[in-house]
Amino acid sequence: MNRDEGAPASWEVFLRARRGLAHQHVGSVRAAGPDAALAVARDLYTRRGDPLSLWVVRSDAVHAVSPDERDPYFAGTHGKPYRYPEHFPPLTEEGSEGDHDQ
Amino acid sequence: MSAPTAVTGEAGQEEPLTRFEALIAQGGTIEPRDWMPDGYRRMLIRQIAQHAHSEIIGMQPEGAWLTRAPSLHRKSVLIAKVQDEAGHGLYLYSAAETLGVDRADLLDALHLGRQRASATFNHPALTWADTGAIAWLTDGAAVINQAPLCRTSYGPYARAMRRVCQEEAFHVRQGYDLMRALCEGTPEQKAMAQDAVDRWWLPAVALMFGPPDTEAGGADARTAALGAAVSRRAMAWGIKRHTNDELRQRFVDQCVPQAERLGLTLPDPAIRWNEERGHYDFTPIDWDTYRTALGDDTHWARRRIDHRRTAHEDGAWVREAATAYAAREEAGASADASGPAVPRQAQEERA
């Protein structure tokens, strides 16, 4: 496909749906530039609710880990039970109920 | 929070297909960068594209009534509803693009007849009551179809469907409310409502759910066997959760009491409560005949696609202007050496 010439760029859309939430990825839009992308994203993702803010980021500007590398890359999450509170006895006999950090 | 467990066996040891099938078996979600079988990808692209096309083609019958709505209130509601349909199409094209296709190519495929929209919308909306019947019946059918798709195995599709379903409930309710207003109106208004239901019942019950995929008699036996094979595959992959026929029955069961409350008659003399089955009986759809009558070469099928293509071509200058504007802005931003080209608003809002 030699569409890259004329087709509008893809933009990932992030929405802060309401106060207290982080921006969350909601989907993507196609638009020629950032202003148009914001306008399209507003029409598409904020028709209801009490949205607070929108971000658009060019899809090709997102850098991601490839699935092939996943296991070595995220290996740090495996085999480390001591990173969880359950690995240790609670502070009092009431169990986690009595922990001052609960 | 407890420690996460690996999907299967030793990390990195299992074959991609094994990992994929294990995820599906656990009711897990497949995400865009995961390995997936080609057939799974193809089935998803086909289904999501057909779904997206149906959403945007489905804007036309109701859209034709925007300028003729009987009150400002009904007009505002209808504009919101038709705008939602455009939005549903765009959520779905966005989901399809995560599978490695380009939405411009999908639109070309629709315009050139290589891909299709649901034949439901190859019917004209002849009166104002049709906008109510479409929303009550075809959107009602869509809700029944789409609610299980919120749990479909492909993540971006499931997330798009959750957005769609949240909005679809409004569509059905406003349609039913419109029909109720007509049924409580003059005898002419009520007759108009009945007439619209007579025309939209079969498209909803047949076309919104697709061909039979459990059992069918006579000429449709082969269609049903074929449909059953496709549905089995789609259900094994967690794309579909129920057969077409199961969802169709659910739709009929829901509509009969709703029609009774309106005082309208569904145009099927065979509709009757079956105590034994615990469902309403209805006439099996003569699928072969219906499909022939609704080929791609009918007047309304051509008209829907022509309208869509014309709108796309007439809008070319807008796309060109937006591209020219974006190019000028970008040139201006890179020429401005005084700072990075980050809009002030984005700087202030960084989380």
Structure annotation, total helices of chain B: 14
Which radius of gyration of chain B do the C-alpha atoms yield? Answer: 23 Å
Rg calculated over all Cα atoms of chain A: 22 Å
Helicity of chain A, as a percent range: 10-25%
| Order of SSEs of chain B | HHHHHHHHHHEEHHHH
**Largest beta sheet of chain B: what is the strand line-up?**
1-2
Structure description:
The complex is a heterodimer of chains A (102) and B (351). Chain A contains two helices and three strands, in the order ββαβα. Chain A has helices spanning 34-45, 70-73; strands at 9-16, 24-31, 53-58. Chain A has a three-stranded antiparallel sheet, with helices on one face. The longest helix of chain A is centred in the middle third of the chain and has 12 residues, at 34-45. The radius of gyration of chain A is 22 Å and the shape is elongated. Chain B is an all-alpha fold. Chain B is 64% helix and 2% strand. In chain B, α6 (128-146) packs across α10 (244-262).
